[in-house]
Write a structure and sequence with these properties.
- The complex is a heterodimer of chains A (about 290) and B (about 350).
- With about 290 residues, chain A is an alpha+beta fold.
- Helix content of chain A is about 30%, strand content about 30%.
- In chain A, strands 1, 2, 3, 4, 5 and 6 form a six-stranded mixed sheet that branches.
- In chain A, α3 crosses α5.
- The longest helix of chain A has about 35 residues, at about 250-285.
- In chain B, the strands form four sheets. Chain B has a five-stranded mixed β-barrel.
- Chain B is flat.
- Chain B has helices spanning about 10-25, 135-140, 140-145, 265-270, 275-295, 300-310, 325-344, and strands spanning about 35, 50, 55-60, 60-65, 70-75, 75-80, 95-105, 105-110, 115-120, 150-160, 165-170, 175, 180-185, 195-200, 205-210, 215-220.
- In chain B, a hairpin with a 2-residue loop joins β7 and β8 (about 105-110).
- Chain B has about 350 residues and is of the alpha+beta class.
- Chain B contains seven helices and 16 strands.
- Helices cover about 25% and strands about 20% of the residues of chain B.
- The chains are: A alpha+beta (about 290), B alpha+beta (about 350).
- The interface of A and B includes residues 26, 34, 211, 283 and 286 of A.
């Protein structure tokens, strides 16, 4: 846990009030971040995001599975988050489980879409193989290696980079099958096709400290938060998920203002994330 | 110690490698042969005999290094000085620490060392400024002096055989630190110099370079070094009556009068440090962070130099932590060392 003296707390709050935080950022500035693609060669896709001192890795494994009930022409996504004990001493043993679960739920809310499959991060029908029998299930596993605040945003950026890096193997269905037989499939490991990630949202967390909200809080600033609202926004400015943390209540008008601030920040953030992902892909391809 | 990490574009990568090459050949760098890794054999004259010092071990009749570092020889004593080590305290070091615990008659202070240091109640200046015996009432009121998580500056008084460290704040320049921010760097980057307290007049900012790697950058303490309260509250006369606003009577230099401070009032918090001063503090803090991330030595001149250079390049404060600025600093350092070599 971050230990701060009363004087340091006052300094941080004063800085936020003046729109000049401890590292010189304004309230709505993100820390410099870097993305690496293809860091896990055994996975179908992977990405690592370093946001300041926060470091997270996401990997995507594509497995064959059954389509969800009621949606025979869709694939599915399964998200899991693990907080490694290397990230912070309090994550040792089972200490990180609560936080992992909370982050997982928040990511599921923004990436999985509704019960009909609409609004999911990627078009689930692109994962379809055999109606009602076989589909692709994408297991998105994430690992928090180092924690300095704003884990949710870093995770969403890493997931987007991993999905961009993912290649779905080409599958050929051999031999026509009857309804009760398991179909035979030929999975081609050489050829793979990419996913359409234009709709993958990025989460922007607004942390309320005193009267003001800040974007991309460090661990020190997060320890002073009263409430935090994470808004998942996609490239078109559409909000696809909303999560509120913290025990202090928020006036609904403040909530509406926070959402508009998040959408405003996303207009500059999402293009820079996309550019960074593209750059990391070309670096990975070049090396 | 968290460093800055970036993915560099190919052009930036080339510039960094070029600068690193120049730094390797520049003046001031130690010859590669003086370095040893863990397990390397150290050349010793077995006939003449030698004394085995720290960082070495005799294995199968050979003297091996147990740490990565530089071999030091003093007469017959052979030791290896590690390049990166935890802070090794010496008596008289100025350190910045954070109070972790209030224990009977002492405070435990985190000084980025192997163990927490101890600050005895008898080693601090009591409010009232008079020298007297510490009574039981003083012991009960320790929190009115320093509480948990407070940041203080102190001097190392003594080291004990078991490695425990004792501090003291028996001078008016030591004490609780306020109105600033703490930057943590690796302790080996801070040289031991005559002065560790710096008041940068040109910026109006106080800078304390703790030998343990904790650097404190703050607005100057208004009350100055000899802050004396008008009515010193003599604790020994209180007889356990209700303690009220003890902080305002302490002699510990602090920039604020607690009676006037109201935490819930945003405007008062805002007015204590102006935005211009805050910007200078943040720029200095970022200069320290950049120097630490690049592994360059941290002392006043290098910090001021980085600060001035960031101003001359019109770098925004927040952009100092981005890749481009760091690369330019590396290139500048390479040029600087080349020039020194030519001058010699």
């Amino acid at each position: 846990m971050v230990a701060l003296s009363a004087a340091e707390v006052r300094f941080i709050q004063g800085g936020i009030a003046h729109d000049l935080r401890s590292d010189g950022r304004g309230r709505y500035h993100f820390r410099p971040f870097s993305i690496q693609s293809g860091v896990i060669p055994q996975a179908n896709g992977s990405g690592r995001c370093k946001l300041g001192a926060t470091d997270v890795i996401a990997s995507v494994k594509a497995e064959l599975g059954r389509p969800p009930a009621g949606r025979p022409k869709h694939g599915s996504l399964v998200i899991s988050v693990e907080c490694s004990p290397t990230a912070a001493p309090e994550f040792e043993g089972r200490g990180g489980e609560d936080l992992s679960l909370e982050l997982q739920r928040a990511l599921e809310r923004s990436l999985l879409g509704g019960p009909s499959g609409a609004g999911a991060a990627i078009d689930l029908s692109s994962l379809h193989l055999l109606e009602g029998k076989v589909c692709w299930v994408l297991y998105i596993d994430t690992l928090v290696l180092s924690s300095d605040g704003n884990l949710l945003d870093a995770l969403s950026i890493a997931i987007k980079a991993a999905l961009n890096n993912t290649g779905i193997p080409k599958v050929e269905v051999l031999a026509s099958t009857s309804a009760d037989e398991d179909p035979e499939l030929d999975v081609d490991n050489e050829e793979s096709s990419p996913l359409d990630i234009s709709r993958v949202p990025i989460t922007i967390t607004l942390t309320k400290v005193g009267r003001h909200y800040i974007v991309d809080a460090t661990a020190e600033e997060e320890s002073q938060m009263t409430a935090a609202v994470s808004v998942a926004v996609n490239r078109k400015g559409i909000v696809s998920g909303l999560t509120k943390r913290g025990g202090i209540g928020l006036d609904p008008s403040i909530l509406a203002d926070m959402i508009s601030v998040a959408r405003h920040v996303s207009q500059t953030l999402i293009p820079s994330v996309d550019a960074e992902i593209a750059a990391s892909e070309s670096r990975a391809a070049g090396s | 110690m968290r460093g800055l990490q970036f993915e560099l574009e190919s052009g930036q990568q080339r510039r960094v490698s070029k600068a690193q090459e120049r730094l390797k050949d520049a003046a001031g760098s130690v010859h590669a042969a003086a370095f040893v890794n863990v397990g390397d054999t150290i050349q010793v004259d077995h006939e003449a005999g030698f004394l085995r010092g720290h960082g070495t071990q005799v294995v199968n009749g050979e003297l091996l290094a147990t740490v990565c570092g530089i071999v030091e020889r003093v007469n017959k004593l052979v030791s290896v000085r590690p390049l990166r080590a935890k802070y090794n305290p010496e008596t008289g070091d100025v350190v910045v620490g954070r109070i972790t615990e209030v224990a009977p008659k002492r405070w435990k202070v985190d000084v980025n060392c192997r163990q927490d240091a101890q600050l005895m109640l008898s080693a601090v200046n009591l409010p009232g400024g008079i020298q007297r015996r510490r009574t039981a009432v003083d012991e009960l009121n320790m929190r009115s002096l320093y509480e948990e998580n407070d940041i203080i500056s102190a001097e190392v008084q003594s080291l004990y055989q078991d490695g425990s460290l004792h501090l003291h704040t028996r001078s008016l320049k030591y004490g609780k630190l306020e109105n600033g921010q703490l930057v943590t760097v690796a302790p080996y980057l801070i040289k031991r110099l005559k002065q560790h307290f710096h008041h940068l007049k040109q910026y109006g900012v106080d800078l304390i370079l703790g030998c343990n790697g904790y650097v404190w950058i703050a607005a100057p303490s208004e009350s100055g070094k000899s802050s004396v309260s008008e009515t010193p509250m003599d604790l020994s006369n209180d007889h356990g009556s209700e303690m009220s606003s003890k902080r305002s009577t302490t002699l510990i230099p602090s920039a604020q009068e607690d009676g006037k401070r109201d935490l819930s009032d945003d405007d008062k918090v805002r007015d204590s440090i102006t935005r211009e001063l805050r910007e200078r503090i943040c720029r200095l803090a970022n200069a320290v962070r950049v120097l630490a991330a690049l592994g360059l030595l941290i002392f006043v001149e290098s910090i001021i130099d980085t600060y001035e250079v960031s101003l001359s390049w019109d770098t925004a404060v927040k952009d100092m932590l981005a890749a481009e600025f760091c690369i330019k600093i590396v290139e500048r350092e390479a040029e600087h060392r080349d020039k020194k070599e030519l001058a010699i």
